[in-house]
Amino acid sequence: MSSQPGSKKVFFHTFGCQMNEYDTGKMRARLRAEGYTDASSPDDADLILLNTCSIREKAVQKMDSALGEYRRAKRDGQKVIIGVAGCVAQQEGNALLKRYPDLDMVFGPDGVPHIGSLVRKASEGQRVLDTDFLDLETYPFVQEIDPTTHGVGAFVTIQKGCDNKCTFCIVPTTRGAEASRPSEQIIQEVRDLVATGVQEITLIGQNVNSYGLKNTGEITFAQLLYKVAEVPGVERIRYTTSHPRDMGPDVVQAYRDLPQLTSHLHLPVQSGSSRVLRRMKRFYTRERFLSLVDDLRSARDDLTLTTDIIVGFPGETDEDFEQTMTLLDEAGFVGSFSFKYSPRPGTPALRLKDHLDDKVSGARLTRYQTRQRELSLAWTRGHEGKVVDVLVEGPSRHDEGVVAGRTGTNLMVNFPGSLELVGQTVPVRVTRGFTHTARGERV
Ligand code: 5AD
Ligand code: SF4
Questions:
Q1: What confidence category does residue 331 fall into, taking pLDDT thresholds of 50, 70 and 90?
Q2: Which of 20, 159, 240, 339 to mutate for ligand 2's pocket (most ligand atoms within 8 Å of CB)?
């Protein structure tokens, strides 16, 4: 049963990765059919949904404190349904409901497609717990899009879950096994998005390179890239996350053939030491990674690379860490998401010996990040005086009369201009490079 549109209000608080952001958009789209519109703030909401992340301990702490605030408002008299969705919900399940007697809903990532019925149950006063994984063969990927979730760029999911077993990672537990979304559905979603003005498509999945490999009759990831590039109006294609082990020559070739494929690739390496990579069960060596980087660079000479790094993995020696430091320079990453290893419940790495002292990991992380900042700055400064093509995404976050957009190589450039430029690709001369962004002026 649907009610009057606008009669009820939902507030989303999203933590973690692009997949969570995408799932929130899908929940928003589905809840519209249930009569929900967006609340402007949590105190204005009839329903508050936290879409949570459990990748590191810190992410879980963030969600705990946010949940505390919302529950306090409820104790103070706000009439509101509170739900915890996403990876923490999947991981903790009933324990969350037990711990917080005023919590109404707990459901994992596979609850997203039937968010409507879950919310209806909660509205009737039932406490909702749903952490069952859905059937992979018939996985009901949500097809509706929510136009308010995206602007110039949009995410499109191409698979759910993950069949890898990296020993540090909790995702296979929280998001379950991998299933690829049928390619016709993906292309349809891309078309629908382009019709709303989207120009840049980012294909997302936990391990995009293994797309389609387990479904008979489905196309491969490389073939999918060519198909997306054929959709009229798609100016730029990005994708994340790649696993270096699964990145084949056909994807490398796509960098030669497809101008829509941007000259930026996020390629998480995790460590520069083959010994650590083995203990992480990543199934590639430092040498193999570097030779992949060479292949990619010969296919696309202006390709920029960013990566994910974990420092202080159990048993990581000084020597192992030095290998990560030299890899950073050799691969020439222009940016990294780098983290201290965080022990996660139920993961194989917990049982490894030699967990490191936090001080040691902290010092290593600082060294890594300092060097990364130098490299990032050298890269952005290298653009000074040059003209680059910027796809304008929106107003700058800080300055009025300034707009922001990115180059294909993922350099964020701010320059004076009006909002009419949003959605246009314009030539901009870079005047100054900073660590993560650059400033420029229109030419
Ligand atoms: N500790 C620290 N970082 C982690 N990541 C995944 N699991 C952990 C963990 N237990 C990092 C990896 C991954 C990114 C999304 O998060 O680098 O690529
Ligand atoms: Fe995303 Fe991973 Fe966090 Fe889950 S645990 S929300 S998949 S980053």
A1: very high
A2: 20
Contact 150, 194 (CB under 8 A): no
Report DSSP letters for 37-91, one per residue: EE-SSGGG-SEEEEEE--SSHHHHHHHHHHHHHHHHHHHTT---EEEEEHHHHHH
How many residues are recorded in the chain? 443
Ligand 1 pocket by C-beta < 6 Å: which residues?
A: 55-56, 168-169, 268, 270, 308, 310, 339, 341-342, 344
The closest-lying atom of ligand 2 relative to the alpha carbon of residue 170 is 5
184 C-alpha to ligand 2 centroid (Å): 26
Distance CA 59, CA 173 (A): 16
Which of 175, 266, 337 should be mutated for ligand 2, with most atoms under 8 A from CB? 175
Burial class (CB in 10 A: 0-12, 13-18, 19+), 353: exposed
* Ligand 2 center from residue 342 Cα (angstroms): 14
Tokens found for residue 93: 């399940």
Query: What's CA 115's distance to the chain center, in Å?
Result: 21
* CA pair distance 225, 140, nearest whole angstrom: 22
Q: How far away, in angstroms, is 101 Cα from ligand 1 center? A: 31
Q: Give residues with Cβ within 8 angstroms of 93, minimum separation 6.
A: 106, 108, 129, 131
Name the DSSP class of 400: T
Mean pLDDT score, 220-229: 98
Average pLDDT score, the chain = 96
Atom of ligand 1 nearest to the CA of 347: 10
DSSP type of residue 346: T
**Cα–Cα distance between 60 and 42 in angstroms, integer?**
20
Closest Cα to atom 2, ligand 1: which residue?
A: 341
* Whether residue 174 has its Cβ less than 6 Å from ligand 2: yes
Q: Which domains does the chain possess?
A: 8-130 (3.40.50.12160), 149-262 (3.30.750.210), 387-442 (2.40.50)
Distance CA 295, CA 248 (A): 10
Q: Which atom of ligand 2 approaches the CA of 54 most closely? A: 5
Q: How far is the CA of 299 from the centre of ligand 2 (A)?
A: 31
**Backbone φ, ψ for residue 62 (5° rounding):** -60, -45
State pLDDT tens for residues 121-146. 999 999 999 999 999 999 999 999 98
